[in-house]
Specification:
The protein has 754 residues and is mainly beta. It is built from six helices and 43 strands. It has one domain: Maltoporin, Chain A (Beta Barrel). β39 and β40 form a beta hairpin. The longest helix has 19 residues. The chain starts with a helix and ends with a strand.
Length: 754
């Protein structure tokens, strides 16, 4: 029996045991009927769009980080979130360059995971409009109420790009009843790196007794730890994030509320902090090893991003139903420069074997991209509150997304690392602009019927239409082959209905059992073609998720234990096809049932004694191909594990706080994150030599506080200074490059509240 099957058997046995023991839960609950102020407080979520519900009363797998957990775990960005929620992973390529996955589902095309800030949907902005799974919006997480991770397809309510799940980062609302402020200052040092620091502030200002504004501002500097030995730059992979958030709330009447959110952030970085620790070869040209935390590429990288998110929500409670109208807007503008020098070596190799036309090829080359994205999203929905057995949430949605992209290949000065301005002696090797327009409309609904106080069923449907119109304008053909040509217009249309079915049963007040079958989908699209062999368009793909779970509370709510088992079939999967021996890629569809992900998720939290909180969140899964994929990079065979996915992850924490006397309190916290061996190879066996292994990271902190007035925290991240490998790139035109975890970081944070 394989190690995976053995582990899965153990986890499945644990699940069965938990289900059997559910029958014992009433005994504990009945014996502890009195109130207990040391019990765990219920966690409120709004994932179902039906208003406030507790996690334990929501029949689906949801991971939540509360406001207290976000602080104790030092969560600042999205990468920090992923290390603390089971089933949530990220392909990390640096600040603002993340690709999110849930339950191992990730691939070419649109994102498989929906990302929301409050009620505001966002879109990634990858290197083409067809690769929006990359470059997900990455705002500083601070003054947040909670983070909700909805595991499994959520497309009936959240639409396209919720094929694998949804992440919602919920900020604190403006409060008309409380004048409050806060200021945080932090400083940290990275082992053999440069300092990090941050300044953050919040002001909540009531306006009368019916309105308020909440303003948050911040500047976060992240120190670097990778040296650019080519250009003599120490700790080049630094990043700066500067931004603000403005929340408003106005009570227009006793049953009517208008809220707004505005996020603005500027990110400036040197791009991905990859190093080259291993020797490699491109087109027969040797690229020597440099060092674990050293880089030696001809081009100095850059990634600058400006993000604006805004939205209005009008809500009116009619009594039997609540009507909600939302309008959201996203604007992103980013400029990227990264090294592409290996392309010249690779094409010279192709020319030597008569596999590419005999033309001039570059030596030191940079890939430059300018991108602008605008998204408008309008939604109207109603959620009923009938006293009878029937209730529903239903609505309509319209979204339009407009993306402009300009891609350029240009010579680089190896000595300075700067792009050489275009001239007659240094002409551009490739340039093209493109505009991608996507319009989506959907009608959706979920209806619930309660047959008793303990048993209910749900049925959901979403019907959507999607239209694309893309215009590609060649300016300089690739490697100057041929003439520029004329703009090319590509269009595509699609429509489909998807479904959800769910049943839940409560044998006791403290136990919920549920089962569901739900679909998720992504829209298709056209392809930004570089060579004629690339396809013009690809179709939508979708998933069927079959899930069963249990949510339980024990010992008068001192222990919460939730478990979910799932089996996901992925149909018509959007894949990345390979052309010119891997030099170019284009999105294709694998027809029929192509892939599968199945696994188990466990979330446990406990408060065994006053002042002590402990918890565990873990997942064991396998995502694999069910069909041979001859068109993909490396031609993976049926049974091959998905690239970029570990087979298990878990996190655990312990927090203990006690009173020192008077108003002074002390708190100690420890967090452990573990990831299994990552299957990263781009499915090419020759690049499996340095597959990232399993790793464990430990963070600790100690906090001294005086009431609600001030606190001082001393923290150590990556306590044992583990050289965890987060990502590895290796393809036909890129030398082996590795992205490592930040080395041991020691810091202090001072916070004042008023």
């Amino acid at each position: 029996m394989s190690a995976f099957l053995k582990s899965r058997t153990i986890w499945a046995a644990s699940a069965a045991t938990a289900a059997i023991l559910c029958g014992a839960a009433p005994a504990y609950a009945q014996d502890a009927s009195t109130a207990d102020d040391n019990a765990q407080a219920p966690i409120i979520v709004t994932a179902s769009k039906r208003g406030n519900e507790t996690v334990q009363n929501t029949p689906s797998s949801i991971g939540v980080l509360t406001a207290d957990q976000l602080e104790s775990k030092n969560v600042v960005n999205f990468d920090d979130i992923t290390r603390n929620v089971a089933g949530l992973n990220v392909i990390n390529e640096g600040p603002g360059l993340n690709t999110i996955m849930i339950r191992g589902l990730v691939g070419a095309g649109e994102s498989t995971v929906g990302l929301y800030y409050d009620n505001l949907p966002t879109s990634g902005s990858g290197e083409s409009a067809a690769l929006t799974s990359g470059r997900q919006t990455d705002l500083v997480v601070w003054d947040a109420a909670r983070v909700e991770v909805l595991r499994g397809p959520q497309s009936t309510l959240y639409g396209s790009s919720a094929l694998a799940g949804v992440v919602r980062i919920i900020s604190n609302e403006a409060d008309p009843t409380d004048f409050a402020g806060r200021m945080d200052l932090s400083a940290a040092t990275i082992k053999e790196g440069s300092p990090s620091w941050s300044v953050k502030g919040m002001l909540n200002l009531p306006i009368g007794d019916k309105a308020a504004v909440r303003l948050v501002g911040y500047q976060v500097h992240t120190g670097g730890f990778v040296d650019d030995v080519q250009h003599g730059i120490k700790n080049f992979n630094q990043a700066d994030q500067t931004g603000f958030r403005l929340n408003t709330k106005v009570e227009l009447g006793p049953d009517t509320t208008l809220t707004s959110q505005l996020y603005v952030q500027r990110l400036e970085s040197a791009g991905a902090g990859f190093s080259q620790p291993w020797a490699s070869s491109i087109g027969g040209v040797a690229y020597p090893a440099v060092g674990e935390l050293q880089s030696k590429l001809p081009t100095k990288g850059q990634f600058n991003d400006t993000t604006v998110l805004g939205g209005l929500t009008l809500e009116h409670d009619f009594g039997p139903a609540v009507v909600t109208l939302t309008q959201a807007y996203q604007h992103r503008k980013n400029d990227a420069i990264k090294d592409n020098s290996g392309m010249g070596d690779f094409f010279r190799f192709l020319q030597s074997i008569d596999a590419f036309p005999d033309t001039a090829t570059p030596t030191d080359l940079a890939f430059i991209q300018h991108q602008k994205l605008e998204l408008w999203n309008t939604e109207a929905r109603v959620a009923t509150k009938f006293d009878g057995p029937f209730n529903l949430v239903a609505g309509v949605m319209y979204q339009t997304r407009d993306t402009e992209i300009e891609n350029i290949l240009q010579d680089v000065d190896r000595v300075s690392g700067d792009v050489i301005p275009a001239s007659a002696t240094n002409p551009i090797w490739f340039q093209r602009s493109a505009r991608f327009k996507l319009d989506q409309f959907a009608a959706f609904g979920e209806a619930t019927v309660k047959f008793s106080d303990r048993f209910s069923v749900l049925g959901g449907i979403r019907y959507f239409t999607a239209k694309r119109r893309d215009v590609l304008t060649p300016i300089v053909p690739f490697l100057r082959l041929g003439t520029a040509g004329t703009p090319d217009t590509l269009t595509s249309k699609e429509n489909k209905a998807i479904f959800k079915f769910e049943a839940d049963y409560k044998p006791t007040d403290n136990v919920m059992l549920y089962a569901s079958a739900s679909q998720g989908y992504r829209v298709g699209g056209t392809v930004l073609k570089v060579v004629p062999e690339l396809p013009d368009a690809y179709g939508p793909d979708y998933t069927w998720n079959f899930e069963a779970g249990a949510k339980t509370q024990w010992f008068n709510n001192h222990l919460t234990a939730n478990i979910a088992l799932y089996h996901i079939n992925w149909y018509d999967t959007q894949i990345s096809g390979e052309f010119y021996n891997g030099a170019f890629e284009g999105i294709l569809n694998c027809e029929g049932l192509c892939a599968r992900s199945q696994g188990i998720e466990v979330d446990i939290s406990a408060r065994p004694v006053r002042g002590l909180d402990i918890g565990f969140s873990g997942t064991l899964f396998k995502a694999k191909w069910l069909k041979d994929q001859p068109a993909m990079n490396g031609s993976p065979l049926a049974g091959t594990q998905f690239t970029d996915t570990p087979r298990h992850t878990f996190s655990a924490y312990a927090n203990y706080h006690w009173n020192l006397g008077g108003d002074f309190d002390m708190a100690l916290a420890a967090n452990v994150q573990n990831s299994g061996r990552i299957a990263y190879s781009d499915y090419r066996p020759q690049y499996n030599l340095h597959t990232p292994g399993a790793y464990t990271l430990v963070d600790v902190s100690a906090t001294l506080s005086k009431g609600d007035t001030w606190s001082t925290k001393l923290f150590v991240d990556n306590l044992f200074d583990k050289r965890a490998l987060f990502n590895l790139t290796a393809d036909s035109v890129t030398p082996y490059s590795a992205l490592y975890a930040t080395p041991r970081t020691i810091g202090v944070e001072f916070s004042v509240k008023y």
